[in-house]
Structures are given as C-alpha cells and as structure tokens.
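Dataset card, provenance and construction

Sequences and ligand SMILES were collected as paired inputs. For each pair, a complete structure of the chain with the small molecule in place was predicted and serialized as structure tokens. The example below shows a pair involving magnesium ion. Curators did not alter the output after generation; any descriptive sentences attached to a record were derived from the structure itself.
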Amino acid sequence: MPIQNGIIEFKNVSKYYSAGHVRVTALSHVNLQLAKGDFVTVMGPSGGGKTTLLNLMGGLDSPDEGEIILNGRAISSLNDKELTRLRRGEIGFIFQFFNLLPTLTVWENVELPLLLSHASRGASQRIESLLDYVGLLARRQSFPAELSGGEMQRVAIARALVHQPAIILADEPTGNLDSENGLRLLDLLKKASVDFETTVVVVTHNPEAARYGNRHFEIRDGVMKSR
Ligand SMILES: Nc1ncnc2c1ncn2[C@@H]1O[C@H](COP(=O)(O)OP(=O)(O)O)[C@@H](O)[C@H]1O
Ligand SMILES: [Mg+2]
C-alpha cells in the first residue's frame, strides 16, 4: 500500500499496558490528523506516551481502542505481510540510540533495508546519493564505532530515506547528541522533509525544536494536546 499522501489519522486511539495488576494508560483517546509534508514535534515528560504514539503510527504496535488510518486505509485491516511491507517500504524509523549494525559499514547499513525488501534495482546509485546528501560519502567504508554520534545519526537518516518513505518517525533522535549536533540533525531532518516530500514526526526534548515544525504536540499521561 503506497502512502502517496503521507496522511496519518488517529481516531479515538487508546493503548493500555498491564504492569502486574495495574493497567497503565499509555495513550488515551488520541485524535489526530497529519497531512503530507507536516513536520510534527512531540514533547512531554518521560513515560507520557511518546514512544507508544510512534510505535502505533509505524505499525510496530496496535491500538486497544480506536482506529489508525494511513492513506485512507485502516492499519487494522492489513495482514502481517501487508503490515511488514508497509513498515519497510513506507515508513522510515530513526531512534535515539542510532540502531546501526556495528559489524556493517556505513554503506551496508544504508543498503540493509533494500536487501531486506529485495529492492536492488538502482540501489547503489541511491545509496551513494543519500550518503552524499547527509555529507558522509567519504565515510562509506567506516564502521559505526568510528563515527561521532552526529555522524551515526546522519547515517540513520540516510537509511530511513532509502525507501523514499512517505513518513519518517524519529524517537528522540537528538537525545544522545550535544545541543549543537542536535540542532544540526533537526536542520537535516527539516531539509529532508522538504526535499523528499516526507511527513516527519519527531519526538524531542529540545525546546528549540519548535521552530522546525509546523505542528506541535505535547503528550502527558497519555493525553495529547496541541501546543
Ligand atoms: N511494553 C510495555 N509494557 C508495560 N508498560 C509499558 C510498555 N511500554 C510502555 N509502557 C508504559 O506506558 C507509558 C508510556 O510509555 P512511553 O510511550 O514509552 O513513554 P515516553 O516515550 O513518553 O517516555 C509509561 O507509563 C510506560 O511505563
Ligand atoms: Mg520514549
């Protein structure tokens, strides 16, 4: 299912976890509509529900109540195979701890999603231009351990873009960067969202992140509010 328009819709979405006998409300009745090209920032205290929100948006987890609609189709109507294809092909994930494979080079890390989905046509050209885009072509043979945090996160951006995803979900991507590199990373994400016409949702604690987005939300105790 191609998400041509990058639209995400949440209809009264709730998610609960049980911790022993206690039921934790991770998300409570979230209603949300994002349009193609939106650059969304999500802030809020630890445990508020930010990661849960991204996991649901990316089809990594499913809601207990309500409906999530991508490109006019309810995620719940997809079977496992369709969901996997959606995740791999339409959504780019960026994590706080980079999640690069340490035994693979920069080039191979970016190539990996293409190998997983057997999409090899034009691959080397695309990888090369993406590494050039994030300023790391010269480091293509390096291993993650040889890179700085900022560089690792730029590799993660290239990896996230390799499928030309409709949506990029970034969970505290600046959490392990100093403030200068954090801002640089947000600059790059912002630029990529324009150049690749991608909807971006970024969870961040960086108060300066607000100037990058056109939509701002806060989640606290599972309740999502516009800021
Ligand atoms: N797999 C899980 N099992 C039990 N509780 C969880 C699980 N994942 C998240 N939670 C709980 O859900 C709430 C929201 O968590 P999370 O979405 O990770 O918040 P944030 O990313 O804002 O820190 C927290 O109370 C957390 O403890
Ligand atoms: Mg989190």
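Derived descriptions for this record:
Strands lie at 8-19, 22-34, 39-43, 65-70, 73-74, 91-94, 167-171, 199-203, 215-220, 223-226.
The first helix runs from residue 50 to 57.
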